[in-house]
Write a structure and sequence with these properties.
- It contains 4 helices and 9 strands, in the order E-H-E-E-E-E-H-E-E-E-E-H-H.
- It has a 6-stranded antiparallel beta sheet. Strands 1-7-6 form a 3-stranded mixed beta sheet, with no helix packed on it.
- The relative contact order is 0.24.
- By secondary structure, the protein is α+β, with helices and mostly antiparallel strands.
- The longest helix is centred in the C-terminal third of the chain and has 17 residues.
- The radius of gyration is 19 Å and the shape is globular.
- The chain has a domain of 154 residues: 2-Layer Sandwich (Mago nashi protein).
- It starts with a strand and ends with a helix.
- Helix 2 packs antiparallel against helix 4 and helix 3 packs across helix 4.
- 19% of the residues lie in helices and 34% in strands.
Length: 236
Amino acid sequence: MLTIICLLIVASTTVDGQTPLNGRPYKRLEPGNKAPFNYRMIVDLPYVIDFSVDSNQQTDVGKRYDSILAEDPKLDRNFDFRFQLKQYHLQANFDNVFVLTLKDNKWKAQYFTMDVKPTADNESLNIKFIEQLEIEQSGVDQLWELLVQNNLLNLPSQLNIREKMVEYVIDNTDFQISQKSMYIGDGVLYEFDLQKYGKQRHYQYGEPFTYFKKYLHIKELAYAVVNISLVRKFLK
């Protein structure tokens, strides 16, 4: 008999009300104050996206963010390809959106903050655009190469790897096997959006840093952690 045990963890996110993807208070970058973004890369990377995979459902919040950002004239709409990393703070009143757009073989990075508050009946969210933060563009081409190197284009959604996120325990009394899994009910959700020629692909990871500490054997979690960390490093 296989017994399933689920461990519930509520992640308490300590925030200062203005914390971006890099985990630091917002700071407008001035020329020359950014550390070099320089990492080893692998050449001849495949640029193929499987838009038919089942991890292609965008969250309702993600759709609302897209509609809000689409109204802002600073968001690039004319592009050949666009990648967005949305960071949702489930216990805070702000979120962040990092955007990479490709047009005529030139990459551009943008970073937006959003104000998020529950409605009076607590049944929905009021979301409004705050501002676009200035970010330095040096290293943006290398950032993209590194993201592709770490399987950004074809990662499955976290929901699709849940069967890997378990541990097995043997009861030495009756030699029954039990299965334990960890569930985090709150924290930070990251949504990855890929858009090209009218096609879109979306996948999500909730609290991937915490889960990866528990499940070091899961390569998909490792890729998600690395890609988020690369964006954070780029924004520092």
